[in-house]
Amino acid sequence: MNPSVLGAFAGLGLGVGLSLVWLGLPLRHRLTLDDRLLPYLLDAPRPSRLLGARPPGVGALGGAGVLAVLTRPLVTDLARRVESLLGRSSSVARRLARAGKPPDVDRFRAEQVVWGAVGMAAGLALASAVWLGQGGSVVRPLLIVVCGVAVGVVARDQWLSHEANVREQRILREFPTIAELLALAVAAGEGAVGALERVCRLSHGELAAELRRCLADARAGAPLSTALQGLGDRTGLVSLSRFVDGMVVAVERGTPLADVLRAQAHDVREAGRRAVMEVGGTKEIAMMVPVVFLVLPVTVLFAIFPGFAFLQFEI
């Protein structure tokens, strides 16, 4: 290679290196006001999470926020129409509470409108393909679009039921451990409120979050029994309702709470074991299908094929 070219590359590399060194010097980086105040604010108590809550309707991105503001009147009007057509606001609010979401039925109807719009877009794409491929009347493409809208609206409703069921299954799996922790705390001398505070501080999960909500209601002035009844009302689990009733009776009448909690945990574990046995029984029946229709014919073929081959060879 030409020495002048090598010299040019070497000079370029030296210049880039010196520029990076110059940019990385501490003198080039001035401390901002946040950097100066941060060491003095590390030990400050955390602010309330309520102060950091984002106002409703404000998006994380500016464009999305503007789009939401522009389309909100249309979505609100369509949500009211969906509400007038479908109704069942109490059922929707109940499932929203079971799913751990705020019981905002209007917001859910707006989400149904958005899902319906997505279904309409998919229906339009499919209807356009059908109409361009076959032509003819526009009745069939129109029916496809209407079906797409209906499927989107119904799919959001079914997805809410799925979310509620999944959350309740997580709560049911967490329940025996939480109940035994409460029993240990009560047996160690803690009261009902103290045991709940200790368990909520040490635990994470859906049931722990519900117990924290009960404690928040109790600190806000509601009786502990009323707060616990709210926990039973927000979920659709019979075992959790029995657990709440047992705790309420123990708190109000002074019965041994630790024994009640241990018995509730044992009952839930037995119910889970029975459910696993039932699922195993259904899976065992389902496993017979590949055995009968796939494995058994292949086994019979392996057993019969040598005889057929030998007969053909003799013939």
UniProtKB/TrEMBL annotation:
Location (main, coarse): membrane
One GO CC annotation: plasma membrane
Membrane topology category: Multi-pass membrane protein
Superkingdom per UniProt: Bacteria
Organism field: Pedococcus dokdonensis
Pfam family, one: T2SSF
Residue ranges annotated for the Type II secretion system protein GspF domain, each copy included: 179-303
Residues spanning the membrane: 6-27, 113-132, 138-155, 291-313
Keyword annotations of the record: Cell membrane, Membrane, Transmembrane, Transmembrane helix
Name the record gives this protein: Tight adherence protein C
Location of the protein in the cell: Cell membrane
